[in-house]
Write a structure and sequence with these properties.
This protein is mainly α. The protein has helices spanning 2-138, 142-192, 210-216, 221-230, 250-266, 271-300, 307-314, 326-344, 348-356, 372-382, 387-394, 405-419, 426-443, 471-488, and strands spanning 201-205, 233-235, 242-246, 320-321, 324-325, 448-454, 459-464, 496-500. Helix 8 packs across helix 12, helix 9 (348-356) crosses helix 12 (405-419) and helix 10 (372-382) runs antiparallel to helix 11.
Length: 510
């Protein structure tokens, strides 16, 4: 029993000691952990302080750099403002100096005005004194002296004055009658001269018949290329010793003639050479057109025209109206208008310019829509021609009212020039219009590159762009053109529509 108690006490004592030791061990572990956390916190605080110092230092450096840059910009702006102020000050000084000079000049002019005024008063006084002295010497006033002189002349020279006035009147009437007769004689002389209609064919002389073979080329290649480039029909079999070029358009015909003559002279006739020579011929014709315009302006005395307007005027050299060369008709009108203006006391320059330019619209009527009068008005306005000249030309077909006497003169000159025998032939004009209408109908379709009326209007050749029109569409196009021609035009016989579609590839070996 005692042993059991002792054992119980020993166990109890061991438990207590174990509890105490556990508690002490736990306290020691807690203290160790606490020290480690504090050490970590201290380390973090140290790192935070160092990072803060670094950030602060960088911020201070950036602020210093920004402050330096700002000060430099401010200094530059201040220097610029200072320079501007100095320039303004100098300008103000110059203005003040000029203002002083102007004021001095004004004062000097005022003094001159006063001097002139005093001199004028002095001269007037001397004149009045002179007149008073004359009146005193003659015992007559100015009006009395004038009336007495008139009365004396009437009494002593009445018969002479009457005879003189009668003679002047008679001589004036005789001179007017003689001048009118001269004008009529000149006009009648011009009316008596006929104007031959423009030919529709040109001839190129050749040395031998072998040239025709070269012009035709292998399988007709050369002649087809030539006709394509010029729009002119080439006839090689009609006349020995020459090649015939046929076209209603004289410009095309002349270009073709120049190009063909050059090709025959060179001897090398092939499509590429043909294309080059045609381009050169076109340039030559352009020069001729310009020269004809300048010649017409010089002959009629119409100067200071825009060079582009002179070129348009020169195109009338190749334009006919009822078989009458339009440029020659315009020059003739200008001469007639000059004579009429001289007799009527009108503005000669306006009348002559209006007559010369009255048909300028016909040079472009196949390119621009509208009547040739409307086209002409727009052309003259575009090139800055005086409005009085436009008024003079616009009324020659009575589309506009007669606003000036010059407009009546231009219309009268047109009637005189165009109404004389042989000046115009209506059948030729209608024929040319029919050929032009044929080409216009064909070129009105999309994809058509060129169209030429040939064989006196019995054939029209239409060249299409290969990329825009295929073979099937070419057939449809030919039929459409034929139907439209049948519906819109009147013509004898039949018209052949030939649509040509070919692809040409060019490359260079270098």
């Amino acid at each position: 029993m005692i042993a059991l108690k002792i054992a119980f006490l020993i166990g109890l004592t061991g438990g207590v000691v174990g509890v105490i030791l556990g508690y002490v061990l736990r306290v020691l572990i807690s203290l160790a952990q606490k020290g480690s956390i504090e050490q970590n916190i201290k380390s973090m605080l140290t790192d935070a302080r160092e990072e803060s110092k670094r950030i602060t230092l960088e911020a201070e450096q950036q602020a210093a750099q920004l402050l330096k840059t700002t000060r430099e910009d401010t200094k530059d702006k201040e220097d610029g403002i200072k320079r501007n102020e100095e320039r303004l000050i100098k300008k103000e000084e110059n203005l003040d100096r000029k203002q002083n000079e102007i004021e001095k000049e004004v004062e000097r002019l005022k003094m001159k005005v006063v001097e002139i005024k005093n001199l004028k008063e002095k001269v007037d006084g001397m004149h009045a004194e002179k007149m008073r002295e004359l009146e005193r010497v003659s015992n007559l006033s100015i009006s009395e002296a004038k009336q007495e002189l008139i009365t004396y002349i009437e009494q002593t020279s009445a018969d002479d004055l009457s005879n003189r006035l009668f003679k002047l009147e008679r001589v004036g009437e005789d001179a007017l009658d003689k001048r009118a007769n001269d004008i009529l004689a000149i006009v009648i002389q011009r009316l008596a001269s006929s104007v031959s209609s423009e030919m529709f064919t040109s001839y190129v002389q050749i040395e031998n018949e072998e040239v025709k073979g070269k012009v035709i080329g292998k399988e007709g290649r050369n002649i087809k290329a030539f006709e394509r480039e010029t729009g002119v029909e080439v006839i090689v079999d009609d006349n020995p010793g020459s090649i015939t070029l046929s076209s209603y358009d004289p410009i095309r015909r002349q270009i073709a003639k120049i190009a063909l003559e050059s090709l025959i002279k060179d001897g090398r006739i092939q499509p590429a050479k043909i294309e080059k020579e045609v381009e050169l011929a076109k340039e030559t014709i352009s020069k001729i057109i310009k020269e004809e315009g300048e010649k017409a302006a010089y002959e009629t005395g119409v100067l200071n025209l825009d060079p582009r307007l002179i070129s348009i005027l020169g195109r009338l050299h190749y334009r006919t109206s009822y078989g009458h060369n339009v440029l020659q008709h315009s020059i003739e009108m200008a001469h007639i208008a000059r004579m009429l203006a001289e007799e009527l006391g009108a503005n000669i320059k306006i009348a002559v310019a209006g007559a010369l330019l009255h048909d300028i619209g016909k040079a472009l009527d196949h390119e621009v829509e509208g009547t040739h009068v409307e086209i002409g008005r727009k052309v003259l306005q575009k090139f800055g021609v005086h409005e009085d000249v436009i008024k003079a030309m616009q009324a020659h077909h009575e589309e506009y009212p007669y606003e000036t006497i010059e407009s009546i003169i231009v219309q009268t000159a047109d009637a005189i020039s165009g109404g004389r025998p042989g000046a115009r032939k209506d059948s030729i004009e209608n024929y040319l219009k029919r050929l032009s209408d044929l080409e216009n109908i064909a070129t009105g379709y999309p994809g058509v590159e060129k169209a030429y009326a040939l064989a006196a209007g019995r054939e029209i050749r239409v060249f299409v762009t290969p990329g825009a029109v295929n073979d099937l569409e070419a057939h449809t196009l030919a039929r459409s053109i034929a139907i439209k021609i049948e519906a819109e035009l009147r013509y004898p016989g039949e018209i052949k529509i030939l649509v040509i579609r070919e692809t040409k590839v060019i490359e260079y070996a270098r």
